[in-house]
Amino acid sequence: MRRPLADEIRPQTLDEVVGQKHLLGEGAVLRRLIESGSSVNMVFYGPPGTGKTTVANLIAQRTNKTLHRLNATTASLQDIKDIIADVGTLLAPGGILLYLDEIQYFNKKQQQSLLEFMENGQLTLIAATTENPYFYVYGALLSRSTVFEFKAVEPKEVQIAVERALAIEKGRAALPLRWEDGVPAAIATACGGDVRKSINAVELLCQAAKPRDGELCLTLSDVEQVAQRSAMRYDRGGDAMYDLASALMKSLRGSDPDAALHYLARFLEAGDLVTPCRRLLCSASEDIGMAYPQAISIVKACVDTAMQLGLPEAQLPLAQAAILLATAPKSNSVVEGIGKAWSDVKHGKTGDVPRELQNVHADSTGMEREQGYQYPHSYPGHWVRQQYFPDAIKNAHYYEYGDNKTEQAARAYWEKIKGK
Fold first, then answer.
1. Phi and psi at residue 75, in whole multiples of 5°?
2. Are 280 and 322 in contact (CB under 8 A)?
3. Has residue 229 got a pLDDT over 60?
4. 223 Cβ neighbours under 8 A, 6+ residues apart
5. pLDDT tens, 171-210?
6. pTM of the model
7. N or C: which end of the chain has fewer CB within 10 A?
8. Which of 214, 185, 187, 183 is nearest to 198 (CA)?
9. Inter-axis angle of helices 315-327 and 295-309, to 10 degrees?
10. pLDDT tens digits, 45-93
11. Closest Cα to residue 322, out of 266, 239, 401, 395?
12. Parallel, antiparallel or unpaired: strands 42-45 and 123-129
């Protein structure tokens, strides 16, 4: 049976690994650990196809330990016990290196079962995860490990692996194999930093290539079909989704309409309407607020329209909302004001509602004095000085006028009315 190309091309030395220069470049800590043959527990965190398994294999070769692989999506506690049973036997004379992929799918008890053997050095753990390990890996296990973050590989680095794969396929093809200019770069760019995905794309393209004039030709149009929707990493409910949501929100706040449209487009490509709609609605109050109060009404209308239209037409009202928010004047006076008020309430700074503000039903309960509420509309400028806060916090102050035109106009108006 023919080996998958991605497995056949797997690097055998650190210098053959593409990307991850921050971890494997000359002088980098992880490279020094591997070259010294050190045996330490590690957590590899990063997106798929970035070299986590490859580096684990290289570590196993250097440390002379027996390598076992488990995937937490299918492994059980018994699988761990079976591996640990080899410790100290002829099956694992130098100890065991356990590569545990997708560790976030192991529950606390399963992760705890590894601790005893990690402590005495009989088992070295390299756990891999595509999710933030500080959220998904048991604290005691994490404290005994060093976290190394693998990053999506840059297209120019991926292209090195793609060209290596094309050379292998060319050497074993039944007919002469060639490719149009730009094919390696197109594959490398479309894979979204996932080297494995790019190698799989090469293999698929070569298997599907049609003979033409006595040769096989890989075309850019074929690359586009094979790599469609693959340049983007998106996992609904995972780190990638929250990173995109954060980037969209911060681009709106930073008044960059181009970046906002970019991140919005990534949500649309993933078919997720709900997440960007929530961010747009939130930004209308959090980042624009009183600087342009009408923004929230317009954004709400755009969101409602988008949800009724569905994709692909939903792109238009959502893009309109994103551009509006990104180019609107900014004010965080709303979030600052409610933040201060809520903080006081959380810390018990409240008090009884003033008698003047209580519901009028209090006047019919035989209380010794009338309510005494002064109706603002009965006074010039529709305002009269009276206390609205409870006595305990009567001098509290939360809202500060923003420095935008709308809020400064409101400030000038009320300063005139109140005689300041």
1. -75, 160
2. yes
3. no
4. 183, 186, 187, 190, 201, 205
5. 888 888 889 889 999 988 888 788 888 898 898 888 888 8
6. 0.62
7. N
8. 187
9. 160
10. 988 888 998 998 888 888 777 788 899 888 888 888 888 777 666 666 6
11. 266
12. parallel
Question: Is residue 360 very low, low, confident or very high in pLDDT (cuts 50, 70, 90)?
Answer: low
> What's the 3-state SS for the chain?
CCCCHHHHCCCCCHHHCCCCHHHHCCCCHHHHHHHHCCCCCEEEECCCCCCHHHHHHHHHHHHCCEEEEEECCCCCHHHHHHHHCCCCCCCCCCCEEEEEECHHHCCHHHHHCCHHHHHCCCEEEEEEECCCHHHHCCHHHHHCCEEEECCCCCHHHHHHHHHHHHHHHHHHCCCCEEECCCHHHHHHHHCCCCHHHHHHHHHHHHHHCCEECCEEEECHHHHHHHCCCCCCCCCCCCHHHHHHHHHHHHHHHCCCHHHHHHHHHHHHHCCCCHHHHHHHHHHHHHHHHHHCCCHHHHHHHHHHHHHHHCCCCCHHHHHHHHHHHHHCCCCCHHHHHHHHHHHHHHCCCCCCCCHHHCCHHHHHCCCCCCCCCCCHHHCHHHCCCCCCCCHHHCCCCCCCCCCCHHHHHHHHHHHHHHCC
Closest CA to 172 of 216, 218, 210, 213: 216
Tell me the C-alpha to C-alpha distance, in Å, between residue 93 and each of 67, 117, 235: 12, 15, 41
| Tokens linked to 357 | 């503000």
